[in-house]
Amino acid sequence: MSNLSGKTALVTGASKGIGRAIALALAARGAHVLVHYRSGAKEAEAVVAQIREKGGRADAVFADLLAADGAHSLAAHVRRVIGDRLDILVVNAGLYKAASIEDTTVNDFDELFAVNVRAPFFLVQQLLPFMDEGSSIVLISSLAAHAAFGTIAAYAASKGALDTLVRHFAFALGTRGIRVNAVAPGLVAKDSEDVLKANQRRDRALSMQALKRLAQPDDISGVVAFLASEDARWITGDIVRVDGGSNV
Fold first, then answer.
1. Catalytic residue list
2. Neighbours of 109 (CB within 10 A)
3. Is 3 within a domain?
């Protein structure tokens, strides 16, 4: 297990699901983790409590990344909590909307790109002054950016744009010794899904995958923790597929 002792980390969208698992994984490796949330205040505080119970350091931070100034507000809050040094930024917060091309509204499209593309761009911009050589940025992309399925064209386009940012960020920040990568999960189990809907999505996912089970958040979080660590010091500008061998 990589050692992140003494490191500070921000994980957006960390109150549940993949973000929660990432926050716990980074904390287990010694990092002081800021658990960002938008609407799940109780869930975020529960993540913080779980980390602290195990002897780790964590704080919950709120920001609405759908708002035009959401990234700026979050960056300011981060600085108030941890000061002038951030070692790890994991941009997990994202918006998902499924709709056919015919049914996608302008508002749907704009909100997807606001949260999935605009917020990561300006969050990186605003946090750069506090990130030094050896820092790591990990963006959470999606299998949807690389495979066409379902009625998620607008969502997939937003994740495709995120993948493009990874390459440009990595090139621009490499001279400062800051690494930028993305993790692209396939379908991940969610406790809150309707059983029938979950079964339909599971069957579709398993038909595409080499590994015949549905992913759990912990299957993703370890890869993110690796990319954030010194063990991945020679990896940047990459998009790591963590999808059970989908479409091999």
1. 155
2. 17
3. no
